[in-house]
Amino acid sequence: MIEVPAIGILGFGYLGRPLAERAYQAGAEVAAVKRRLSSDDINLPIVLDGVDAGDDQALNRVLAQHWQHKKVWICLLPPSAINDYEACLKNWCDQAKAYGAKHLIYSSSVSVYGNRARLCDENSPLAPESESARRVEEAERIFLDSGIANVDILRLGGLYDSSRHPLTSLLRRAVPIENGDAPVNMLHRERAVAALWQAVQRPAGIRIRNLVERVEPSRRAFYTAEAVKLGLPLPEFEAGGSGKTVTSLYRDL
């Protein structure tokens, strides 16, 4: 029987909340941090603190109070969540090491590979093009240099589910969508949460994993199929387009 470790989650949003639900349903002790508490957070069976993660002093007080005995520390914050993203994650990793955490998990992004048309696996060179992707690449380095024995870097594809689907915004455009034949690298939220939970339960040293759907269709094929499933109007696409196709050398998560 796999032992369920106590966990801390930095970022209690689109992935953090369902991951916490899965964890406490499995009997795990869970602490989490989000920027602001809402009425939906009342009486949750976890320790949930509302604090600005970019405020080192405020965050450190919460970590000292509720995270000291958590063996797995999970960061699900995107770069847009904090002004000084790298400094925040460096402080957070330092606190994890000081409190004896055994395992760090970071939700990275396939954006670190850039957009150039090529096949990308975990051994492909990184080529981030956006400022956000460059900050994610730097965050990966912070985790890998943390000095903690077990570190998982999970490079996630574009996240979606029926409640938050990129098709909704695409359909608001009055013109055909460009790059219809370009590949998409997507990941359903349920699959992302399942992979995160597997990583929690099975630490294995330093791991970098790409997590995308196993079939990488074109934008046209993916969004047309999703529109049919969701009962939405079929989107129109322009022909052409190219981009990276992300795959993984591993199937352990």
Topology:
Elements: E1 7-10, H1 16-25, E2 30-34, E3 47-50, H2 56-66, E4 72-75, H3 85-98, E5 103-109, E6 119-120, H4 131-144, E7 150-156, E8 158-160, H5 166-170, E9 186-188, H6 189-201, E10 206-211, H7 219-230, E11 245-246
Parallel strand pairs: 1-2, 1-4, 2-3, 4-5, 5-7, 6-11, 7-10, 8-9
Helix pairs in contact: 1-6, 2-3, 3-4
> What oligomeric state is this?
single chain
Portion of residues in helices? 25-40%
The overall average pLDDT, rounded, is 92
Second-tier CATH architecture: 3-Layer(aba) Sandwich
Structure explained in plain terms:
The chain is 31% helix and 19% strand. It has 253 residues and is of the alpha/beta class. It has a single domain, classed as Rossmann fold, CATH 3.40.50. A 7-stranded parallel β-sheet has the order 3-2-1-4-5-7-10, sandwiched between helices. Strands 6-11 form a two-stranded parallel sheet. A two-stranded parallel sheet has the order 8-9. α2 packs parallel to α3 (85-98) and α3 (85-98) packs parallel to α4 (131-144). The longest helix has 14 residues, at 85-98. It is globular and about 55 Å long.
Keyword list:
seven-stranded parallel β-sheet, 7 helices, globular, Rossmann fold, alpha/beta
